[in-house]
Sequence to fold (431 residues):
Amino acid sequence: MTSHDPQILPPSLPSLTGADGEGTVRADFPILARQVYNRPLVYLDNAATTQKPRCVIDAMTDEYLNVNANVHRGVHYLSQQATDLHEQARETVRRFINARSTAEIVFTRGTTESINLVAATFCQACVGDGDEIIVTEMEHHSNIVPWQLQQARKDIRLRVCPITADGRLDLDALGHLFTSRTRLLACTAVSNVLGTVNPIRDIIAMAHAHGVPVLVDAAQAAPHMVLDVQALDCDFLAFSGHKVYGPTGIGVLYGKETWLDRLPPYMGGGEMIGKVTFERTTFNVLPYKFEAGTPDYVATTGLARAIDYVSAIGLDAIAAYEHALGAYAYERLMQIPGMHIYGPGPSPVISFNVAQPRSAAGRQPALIHHLDLGTLVDHLGIAVRTGHHCAEPLMRRLGVEGTVRASFALYNTRAEVDALAAAIDRVITMF
Ligand code: PMP
Fold:
């Protein structure tokens, strides 16, 4: 089969229209019209961050132009308006993940801060010397290092759930990791490298059967699938605004109210207090207990608009579109000689390496260095990510130093997949 054989085309992709119901979604994202190196930009680094629709940019610009004032503290008109927008954004997030109450929605700077918050406060309140936290071999550094930092304070043991050869969590092995000392399981819902979608609901049920609460890293899940924290029954869940078409610097920590009530504050300062004296300070109610200092209230407005945007299109429609596009990309890339894709199969996140065409006979073919491949396709206008993707233990498990990662979003097209495949073909001819 040649790389242009029409037989590899899946049935045409489901149509995806913008939030206004008009045309394609691409027109909603101004940056997609720009050129790099005099070529149309093909942006395939969406797992790192997504581009922003105009409605998000406009909502934030409008707030700075017309509303800006610090929230919660002012009696004046603008402060109340800004506070209303900020608290409406919290309600929008609550609806997005189906939390019971806005008391369970803590605004943070992102997934990383959300996980650090839980690691620090949970280990302070609920973990003792000799206790264990389970993580997995496919975690991002931000769901490994925060737990390790706590080891400086207490004798905490990290136990690691391995992955199978095809890049899934080894659930049998996970079952054997629970002991009477296990205090929490911290697990990603979707791998940022392999694209593996973990059966997170089953994993949570398994942990709960052992009496162990679960923190879900939903950084890579939130843009691609419906999240329902009540249906999942997760205890904590973290995601970042910038990966869901929202602004940078804003993220969410969901926590069951019973857990958040048990945990001590993370940072001290304004807003998180009840009453302050030099002798003793009391703390604010949830979620403000965890929100010290001036929040990024403009970013919360932007995040709410981004959530409105994806909700208007529909997460299910987005998932169907991206799944079909990921399947097309997988088939297309697999036709490239020397291509090796890591992970269990088609998904909107594809990590790969390509063997050099002229490797010595009888020898394991050398790989084209991921950085060379990424740099060369970049000069053809295609933005992909290269390196360890903040998952060095996973790279070690895969036996590579790094990979090239193409990751897709709702605005990507089959033509862009073709452009990526053609660019890789061209790079191969240079080696
Ligand atoms: N977890 C996963 C699975 C991720 O992909 C990322 C971002 N690459 C993070 C956590 C960290 O997100 P942020 O940098 O937005 O805090």
Summary: The first strand starts at residue 35 and ends at 36. The domain at 67-313 is CATH 3.40.640.10 (Aspartate Aminotransferase; domain 2). Confidence is low (pLDDT under 50) at residues 1-11. Residues 77-97 form the longest helix (21 residues).
